[in-house]
Amino acid sequence: MAERPDLAAMLGGLVRTLVALETPVLEEQRLSMWGYVVLSALDDGPVRTQAALAQAIGADKTRIIGTLDELQDAGLISREPDPADRRVRLLEITAAGRERRRAAQDRIQAREEKLLAKLPTTDREAFLRAARMLAE
């Protein structure tokens, strides 16, 4: 097998570049990185508990409480008691949250397009296909 750097070593620089592309957009949208992750997860549909959300996004449930508070205070999510179990809070993105998340995503992906444009079309398509497959 030919020698190559580990995947983490190869992708580390790319991830740093992507974070640097996203950060100004998120700042403009008044979102933290975790806020954007939460809104993205909730845009797929409501989540029954904070613990389920934390598991879905790979965060510690106690770590996201502050993020949830900020998003709720900004009117971007709602946390309502579950009628079937009042101890449980149903988490849902609001229309304003969906609008802000999608605006951020549009701007982020426009910046990503500039980076991806460095690749020939066939390589770009293969890269995006492989990234989706490996992310699953």
Automatic annotation (TrEMBL):
Source organism superkingdom: Bacteria
Pfam families, sorted: MarR_2 (PF12802)
SMART domains in alphabetical order: HTH_MARR
SUPFAM superfamilies: Winged helix' DNA-binding domain (SSF46785)
Domain HTH marR-type, first and last residues per copy: 4-136
Annotated protein name in UniProt: MarR family winged helix-turn-helix transcriptional regulator
Species assigned in the record: Amycolatopsis heterodermiae
